[in-house]
Amino acid sequence: MTTLEIRDLHVSVGDGADGTKEILRGVDLTVRAGETHAIMGPNGSGKSTLAYAIAGHPKYTVTSGSVTLDGEDVLEMSVDERARAGLFLAMQYPVEVPGVSVSNFLRTAVTAVRGEAPKLRDFAKEMKGAMDALAIDPAFAQRSLNEGFSGGEKKRHEILQLEMLKPKIAVLDETDSGLDVDALKVVSEGVNRFGSTGDTGVLLITHYTRILRYVKPDFVHVFAGGRVVAQGGPELADELENEGYEKYVKAGASS
Amino acid sequence: MGLDQRPLSTLHEKVSYDVADFDVPTGREEEWRFTPLRRLRGLHNGTAEAHGKVIVEAEAAPGVRVETVGRDDARLGKAYVPADRVSAQAWASFTEATVVTVPKETEAAEPTVLRLRGEDSATAAYGHTTVVLEPFARATVVLAHRGSATYADNVEFVVGDGAFLSVISLQDWADDSVHVSHQHARLGRDARFVSHNVTLGGDLVRVSPSVAYDAPGGDAELYGVYFADGGQHLEHRLLVDHSTPHCRSRVDYRGALQDEDAHAVWIGDVIIRVEAEGTDTYELNRNLVLTDGTRVDSVPNLEILTGEVVGAGHASTSGRLDDEHLFYLQARGISRDEARRMVVRGFLGQLVDSIEVPEVRVKVQEAIEAELDR
């Protein structure tokens, strides 16, 4: 059974010349297959840093701690190795890649992750089905990746990639931000389809509780000051909805 | 600047068939300041000895006439007067010229290919090519440059009324080659001209495509793809001179650069003269820098002397291969090297895909892959 284990993770940004800044200050978190975890927290609490550090973004330096996926040391892996090992990060701001079509990109990624090129016909069918499920116009297959896409279209395409790459653990970085209710429902259904197999784990990073009406978390973690300051079940999200982050911000700052 | 003043483009005002009318460039002149003159092997100052040879082989499409003619052929130099000293030197020095004629209303189904092969770069060679499309003719002409040469030439494209000419000029020279070329197109009424310059090989390549319109309705699209490696100087200097009403021009040049002292220069001059009302023009240059140590000079100049235009714009961007692009692709399992290739292919690919001759397109794609393998 898949397990992503994060132990005492410390992460900094900056090259040191103008001073490095520690953003994550000892994060412990375990995500197992079949579980959906929500990480909630105010702006600047380090939620996105956690997501990028797991994915291996070069801007972030892990200064101590460990991240393992089924016992394998994730921090030793390059960005693409992590993806091939079964980690997926749905980005908050997917970049535009001019001249690289959605279908070419998806096929290259699927080939890399599965270790062999899918048959063209099978792939076309699979892509069409996945696009239909997310109400994505098939014409997008020939468009340049994310170029000129609206915020909602970009997020749908992140979930399209999620569903086609079938990772073991998906980290969703504010996938709900900037979505209208209809798009939020479509995206949430995609996340639920992905999470419903029981073989996969979801780490959902969000600022708002809104998406948690559609994607039910098993665990809620409150992030502040670069650490998890509170943990609980879905009821914790309700409390945050009503009371906000204020008391946790203070807790994070004083620790 | 008021409309009663002279245009700024005195740069392009001086033309002559006589070498002596042009001073020997020193490198301080606007039109020479980016070009390393010492690497021109004397093409610019009269010291180059002309014993070199660039052999021209032609593959004419059915209905298209290709002739080799002497200097005195009356059709030569009709459309173009040399605009700088090297161009005038080439005009003064060539011994044989190639004339391609597409007769009136002939629609050539296949491309006409001129293969220009340099045999020796030690001394200079000069050439001249004139392509004439008579009214309502349609043709595609490929100029494929290969081998070792120190070569200066002028190419004239005369596109008659209602005619359509597509030109692909491939500069795929050996590493020791120097090539200085002027490619001038003159468009008749409702004539259409599409050009692709693909510059990949050579020590120094300086290509100056220019367009002039004789009558309204002319439409020119100038595309370029280049890939500069360490030590290479690849320069493209475009001039579109809108002097008649209701003509259109589009310029899109894109290049990638890698390794120490790779140098790309792009100059895009567009003039919209007082009489050229209803002009529609846009020019774009984009450069993708793949490593440290490269240099890009990109200078768009748009000079508008009438307010009555449909559109006039330009843009120039030069940027590094974006770490965020690579991260995004890698985060989907794609290796760093493959990600880099995808980004470069995507960047240049939109122009490469618009090359309509499949064999040439595939060849360019392969050549870009070979550059990426370096």
The largest inter-chain interface, given as chain pair and residues per side, is:
A-B, 28 and 24 residues
Average pLDDT of chain B, to the nearest integer? 94
Under CATH at level 1, the class of chain A stands as Alpha Beta
Distance between the termini of chain B: 48 Å
Shape of chain A: globular
CA distance, first residue to last residue of chain A: 34 Å
Number of contiguous helices of chain B: 4
Task: Provide the succession of SSEs of chain A.
Answer: EEEHEEHEEHHEHEHEEEHH
Radius of gyration of chain A: 18 Å
Rough shape of chain B? globular
CATH architecture of chain A: 3-Layer(aba) Sandwich
Largest sheet of chain A: 6 strands, mixed
CATH superfamily of chain A: P-loop containing nucleotide triphosphate hydrolases
Beta-strand residue fraction of chain A: 25-35%
Helix content of chain B: 10-25%
The biggest beta sheet of chain B reads: 16 strands, mixed
CATH topology of chain A: Rossmann fold
Report the C-alpha radius of gyration of chain B, rounded.
20 Å
What count of structural domains of chain A? Answer: 1
Uncertain spans of chain B, ≥5 residues at pLDDT below 50? Answer: 1-7
Number of DSSP helices of chain A? 8
